[in-house]
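Exercise 7.
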Amino acid sequence: MLYTKDVVKQIIPQEDVAKVIENATKAEIGGSSNIRSGNDRKNKLGTDQLVGQIATYCGSVYLTGSPNGWSKARDIANANPYVGDGGVDIIGLDNVDIKGSLMRRSQNPLDYRLLVRERERHKGWIYVLGLVPKSRPYTTHLVGWTYDEDLPKETYSGPISVLRGAYVIEAKNLRGMSDLLELIKI
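Solution. The predicted structure, written as tokens, is:
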């Protein structure tokens, strides 16, 4: 079980903010969403992409000590915008997928859930929950992580419609980020 002390807070240095925004803008090519549709998707695409880039940048810095793996992955994705990245967010950590989400309903990272859709799953991969507050500076709370094989056997079918069809783990039930840091250093 995770506690607030286990959550890692990463802040993007001001000198890198423009690069993160630029990469988010380049990623605004459309695509599909399991949460949004139609005009809502179009209207929120910029925010959604920015949140993803903030979370991934911060994950790269925490896990590798620099944003270089994120930057290299973005260069590849930007050169082939309609191909997709196959889930590779950080070059050098090709089996780590940062799942970024905007903090809307609560400022407590442990009140959230990690969601992984069937099409996002890869055998042997690791999924990290990264939550981005609305406030500035650009920040990510790296909450925790799980192995693909530890996702629930069944997808969510409860009352919250946007979660239906996803494999869902409550944030407090994830593994601690310090454990992942140790794992990738081995």
